[in-house]
Structure prediction request, 684 residues.
Amino acid sequence: MTDLTSIHGLGPKKADILRKETSLNSIEDLFYYFPRRYLDRSITSTQELSVGQNVTLILEVKSTYLIRGRISRFTARCSLKDETSVNLLWFRPNRYIQRVIQKGEYLAASGKLTFFSGLQIAHPEFEIIDPEEEDELTCSSRLIPLYSSTQEMKKNHLDSRGLRRVFTELTKVSTFYPQEILPRTALEKHQLMDRESALKAIHFPKNEEEQKNALYRLKYEELFFFQMMMYYKSLVREKKKRSLRPLSWGKSNSYESLLKNLPFTLTSDQNNTIQKILKSCQEDSPCSFLLQGDVGSGKTVVALAVILHYTEAGIQTAFLAPTEILAQQHFITISNLVGLLGAQYVEILTGSDKKKEREMKLERIVSGEANIVIGTHSILEEGVLFRRLGLVIIDEQHRFGVKQRDAIQGKGNNPDIITMSATPIPRTLCLTEFADLELVTLKEKPKGRKPIQTMHLTEKKRQGLYTSIRNHLQKGAQCFIVYPLIEESEKIDLKAASQAYEELSSDIFPDFSIALLHGRLKKQEKEQIMNQFRNGKIHILITTTVIEVGVDIPNASVIVIEHAERFGISQLHQLRGRVGRGKNQSYCVLVSDAMNDESRARIKALVESNDGFYLAEKDLEIRGSGEILGLRQHGLSDLHLADLWKDRELAAFAYEDARLYPEISDAALEFLNRRFSQEGNICS
Ligand code: ADP
Ligand code: MG
Prediction:
């Protein structure tokens, strides 16, 4: 493989920095270091400009000056090619700006153009450019690529400008280009650009259209290999053999007694789901399910019903929950239910267990005495060993990544796995990211539930809100009030949860019992508060997003979400799902004054719809799939360009093609293994 230093102008030192800072190791990797965006340099005269517009201008710096004061100001007087002057202005300028912006430099500056004793852009995003390179590039294109670089890279002439030089050299030499890896048939079928042209055009596009075509091809490439990997993965899974087999449907006595002890009867949807899961679990290869159902649809009891068929066969279950509060809740519910069945040992493992306590628990788990082990991330730690782990349950799966899924599975010998999701995942995504999971869906909600009434209120209506909460409390209801923060933030004037607690408990609701629950409390304090709230001793729980997922208090029927504009759609839907879990009519009040178009759209969606599937699609549209599925923050998906939702059509093509043309070249295989390295080398 050709070394980075074979590129003209890239010495060993710079190459080293590149490798260290970006983990680019080869020429091929380097080609895939795409521009973060492009500057459009078509605007060279003010005639084309109007105030209020967002613009990018190529400017020459004529002079700079700094005015010191309580708020100092740094101004760069600049001019466009046609000599019109434009000022760039910074309040409280940092040193870097003052150092790099010097008379005689050329800048590409972007921002909103205003008029303030002359044309001006305040706090522009800028880029120093080289007038010579400028001329050379201008001949070929209006779009200059801008690259990201770290501080270390900037110090060593590998800033955007420096990188542009590297890429100019790189794209000049035809032998540097990696060979085609997509099947010819796929290229023809979708009329895709060939690899060489696409890699050249993504760095130096002649025009927007060419850039778009290049991006399309590269997205397809990424999706194709991603789908290929998922496909191989599912083949690998099919070859695995299960080592433990649960009882089949209808054979478990403890399940029969559970049904008798439940305070309700299962819906037919729940019944069918349990049956379907248990049936698959009789097959020879282990199963992976994605159990999805809207908030409050009753997934926990489905999981428990399945679990009992394992416990009774002497098989252990690991039950993973994303927060301590949720783990604790599952522990209580499940212990209460199975406690009645006898001979079941439920264990809870969290990060805040004392050392001695934890050692004893680990002992019970490794000896097999603990049948059902519920816990947070701390179950994933190395020291946690099971005797006969045959089933893994992952609640609120969007809070976990594939790595964690693999880690917990690794503790058993090919255990079955059920991941549960209340953030419904649209079908198109299930075909892709979750291609290796079998989908089971709870559509029906338990009977007797009334749809939650959701409304939006502004600050002006606060007194009315309190009066209405009081009415509900007097009728025996309980209430959540959720804040985005727990302490007063300096910058943003937010009424934080703790301040509200003071005010509500002393002035507004002195005759009711109010508690404050947030993430920084000690484990015992959290447990105590949750227990009191569960037992109805606390009427109002002022809290933060620690209760976002899973918390189940059927008697709570009012939730007030303060600063609702600061939450995303799925977060709001999850929070709202804390009520509407019992027989009473429930209410969700979104309080917000400060709304922009986006937050207004989110709040409107919530007021209009209770349907998690509909809301999830809305959310995907606004935020993109990476965010939603929590993949990006785990760095797992390896999709840098494509978005499984926004590019769903392309993703669907790639899905089909990966199965149509599974025979790929050695070069493609090597590429696949490198690109999706975190997943391990799965094909050989
Ligand atoms: P989620 O799907 O959001 O995890 P839970 O499993 O927490 O929902 O269930 C929500 C509430 O509904 C719980 O209080 C649970 O006991 C109750 N529940 C579950 N199934 C039924 C049913 N068939 N009939 C009535 N209530 C049910
Ligand atoms: Mg749940």
In short: The two ends are 20 Å apart (CA to CA). Residues 70 and 266 are 68 Å apart (CA to CA). The first helix runs from residue 12 to 22.
